[in-house]
Amino acid sequence: MSADGNGNSDNGRGIGKTADETVAPVFSVRNLWKVFGPKADRVPGSDELAALTPEELRERTGCTVAVRDVSFDVRPGECFVVMGLSGSGKSTLVRCLTRLIEPTAGTIAIDGEDVGGMDKGALRDLRRHRAAMVFQHFGLLPHRTVLDNVAYGLEIQGMGKAERRAKAGEMVAKVGLAGMEGRRPGQLSGGQQQRVGLARALAADPEVLLFDEPFSALDPLIRRDMQEEVVRLNRDEGRTMVFITHDLSEALRVGDRIALMRGGRVVQCGTPEEIVGSPADDYVRDFVRDVPREQVLTVRRAMRPAHDAGEAATGPALSPATTVADAIEAVARTGCSARVVDAGRCLGVVDSTSLLGVVAGLERTPSMGGFEEKTAA
Ligand SMILES: Nc1ncnc2c1ncn2[C@@H]1O[C@H](COP(=O)(O)OP(=O)(O)OP(=O)(O)O)[C@@H](O)[C@H]1O
Hints:
It is a single chain. 38% of the residues lie in helices and 21% in strands. By secondary structure, it is of the alpha/beta class. The radius of gyration is 23 Å and the shape is globular. Adenosine-5'-triphosphate binds at residues 36, 64, 66, 84, 86-92, 246. One of its GO terms (biological process) is response to osmotic stress. GO terms for molecular function: ATP binding; ATP hydrolysis activity. This is ATP-binding cassette domain-containing protein.
């Protein structure tokens, strides 16, 4: 995530940051369905109905399947992105997590606790304290100052005035708005208003932040700023996040893992590197076609065994999380192959052929070091 001992950055996102798979997940979702329409609950149980195309199903039953048999875990400390085109089911899926939309079938647990079995009070607590939502339309109160907007949620919780103003001040500073506490929302840019919305969600100190396309209304530069803010919050605080977007570059920038949705299904769930480097099918391959591979893929994919002990001991040392783009720079600068080193051990070597092979999307052949054109799956 940070520059390694050799000054090799892995682009700041934390490529290679792998949330520990052995720890218990924050959210655990199994076989989740959301069907809109009359007698929706007959659809998940019926092989015949579930096999129909969306159009056939609508014609025969009047139902729309928004989420179709989806299972995944969100691990502590990760930024889990739900990505897909408009209508693919992203918002419905994430709203089901806290039952803002009632699932039709399947189970959801938060920290092992069944969300389906929660009563009204527990659900209120879940939405306020455990999994707070940051919306695209941040719903700020126009007549209140920035500070009071941020403190609003704490006021509802019954926190005393001095304490909530101190806490709100801390959050305002955390999102980079120190000095603007006394302004009203109308005196802020769209990006600054979004930061107030973020500070308000953070003030409740939720275990998970759920973002629903939070930045899609912002202009590109401010949007980039906000993405960096999210990455920073995730990295510095280790706060778990679920982030909806239809924008692939945003997903790649903020996500530790990405669930790519199509027609209510998750067609692939994996790290940006897995999605771009090993697309699960032609749909995903098409989706990631224009991604600059060298900025997402790491030297792990370009590595080959060292030819001899000499090669394994010379050349610049790179961490396994180094992007191919940074490795190309290191190899070009020094004019020799670079070693991929982890905890003092040389895992392999990258050279210009192996790095260019990854950029070109070629598959490594069994004969060490060679590449061949990738054939469509
Ligand atoms: N209340 C509803 N009643 C009927 N159908 C719905 C309802 N809400 C959503 N849908 C349908 O469910 C599907 C998934 O919608 P959803 O809003 O979850 O998609 P999305 O990926 O978030 O889209 P967008 O990016 O446009 O917000 C769509 O076909 C949509 O028309």
